[in-house]
Amino acid sequence: MQVHFGGHPGDTFPPCALTIGNFDGVHLGHQAILRDLRREADARGLPTALLTFEPHPREFFSRNDPPARLATLRDKLAFLQGTGLVDRVHVQRFNRGFASLSPQAFIDSVLVERLDTLFLLIGDDFRFGSRRTGDFSLLAAEPRFTTRAMPTVELDGARASSTAIREALEAGDMPLAARLLGRPYQLSGRVVHGRKLGRTLGFPTANIHLPHRKPALAGVFAVECLTPDGQRHVGAASLGKNPTIDDAGCYRLEVYLLDYSGDLYGQRLIVRFIHKLRDEEKYDSLDALIAQIHADVAETRRLMPC
User: Fold this and answer.
1) Which helix (H) or strand (E) holds 53?
2) What is the radius of gyration, based on Cα positions, of the chain?
3) Are 286 and 244 in contact (CB under 8 A)?
4) What pTM was estimated for this model as a whole?
């Protein structure tokens, strides 16, 4: 899978079958679009291409209160590659200039001149261009490529969407989030140096860098971690603001790997959230916190035997 960043004037690419969207989480609805795109592309002898945006347009327009992102760009690209359905990904920098393009300018300069789109598959609610004034009818009327809308994908009568997954994660419904994604929800990041308080409490944790300030879930979880060597480890994870010992108000992801000893600093861990144990709480003392961590570890062992 080729990945192209930017979208500079003058860049051109071979003809393609294209889909467009944020593809946050690459959930079941996204996967259905990609399978359909592959079928249409193969029938036309074209490669598949995906146009996505960085940052997420809603992050750009709501900088003070951005929506929780399900996946980093790095993880999104890894999920897309894992489908085996995408030949090229174009990551368009979403800035004021791009946001101000009229719908027709977007069609002319991006879809036709740069990407040479011959077939376009979009979600049935796709909007584009300045003030989101472009819609399916405008694309369908374009004679230079064929446009088709992908119907909504439903699971148990509910729409498979990034919004539905965020709602499931916020509610702590990890099984529902996993069903909508087609896999357990996960975050990844490098292990960084923290305050090293966990080891003084008897539970040394891996502190994982969070690139976005607002995660899609919070609380204490039973997790499984994958290290770069492919080993799986069971752990108990806290994702929150640590109110008992910290008043900075920043989210932190800290993972205690059961029965593990080793140096993880600088390594990239994948953390898969399997069960939510409880919400985050503030305790009156460190002794009370330690007692609760013991209980969390015991519950993790019960739910996920090592």
Assistant:
1) strand 48-54
2) 22
3) yes
4) 0.88
DSSP bridge partners of 159: 154
Dihedral sign for Cα 163, 164, 167, 172, please: negative
How far lies 228's CA from each of 1, 29, 39, 79, 265, in Å?
A: 21, 29, 34, 16, 12
Domains in the chain, CATH or no CATH each: 2-159 (3.40.50.620), 186-303 (2.40.30.30)
CA distances from residue 285 to 67, 238, 247, 248, 281 in whole angstroms, order as listed: 34, 18, 15, 18, 12
What are the distances in angstroms from CA 272 to CA 222, 223, 252? 9, 5, 16
Q: Which residues are registered as beta bridge partners of 18? A: 49, 120
Whole-number Å distance between alpha carbons of 237 and 218: 10
End-to-end CA distance of the chain: 35
User: Both tokens of residue 219?
Assistant: 């609380």
Which tokens in the block code for residue 167? 């709602």
H helices within 102-260, ranges in order? 103-105, 136-140, 162-170, 174-181, 197-200
Give the C-alpha separation, 66 to 57, whole Å: 10
Longest dimension (CA), the chain: 70
Residue 174's contacts (CB-CB under 8 Å, 6 or more residues apart) are: 168, 184, 185, 221, 273, 274, 275, 276
- Going from the C-alpha of 135 to that of each of 52, 184, 262, the distances in angstroms are 17, 33, 53
Which tens digits make up the pLDDT trace of 214-226?
A: 899 999 999 999 9
Using one digit for the tens of pLDDT, what is the confidence trace for 155-205?
777 788 899 999 999 999 999 999 999 999 999 999 988 665 656 666 788
Q: Which amino acid is at 236?
A: A
